[in-house]
Amino acid sequence: MMAGARCRHHETRFPHAPRAPGFAPAKRLDRARRSPDAHLGRIMSLESRSFGEQSETEAVRFLERRGYRVVGRNIRIGRGEIDLIAYDRDVLVFIEVKARRNTRYGGASFAVDSRKQRQLSVLAAGYMARRRIKDCPCRFDLVLIQGFANRALEIELIQNAFEAGGDFRSR
Asked: Which fold has domain 40-162?
């Protein structure tokens, strides 16, 4: 096996293996050749992640004040994630939290398209199957958060926002 080659079964590298004639490793950009602003993308994503986490925390507080009992946060199922899972009385509620700093691109309500609704439906079914939950009414709610500079967050709850695999209901 050649250096840098990957074992098909274990996806590990074998650096001690001899290199083939003419083999040259891929060149990396050294720090001096990178754009001076290259690090900003990482900072922005960390800042956005922090805003998202703060928004989810605010959504939990908002829902608990309205009588919801939150039982799960950021639940991973396969490759997807459900933001919040809660009970509203005896109804199991799968909640998608969408937070936006501004109304560019339509704001938070435009972020839940039909593809996202289908994905949430599949994730909810997977969650219920994994937990062996049967004969329990459930629904999908949206918490939309708009965060504007120098103003309090605007939080909106849309209960029963869409049917499993269906379309977003008008308000």
From this structure: Trna Endonuclease; Chain: A, domain 1 (3.40.1350)
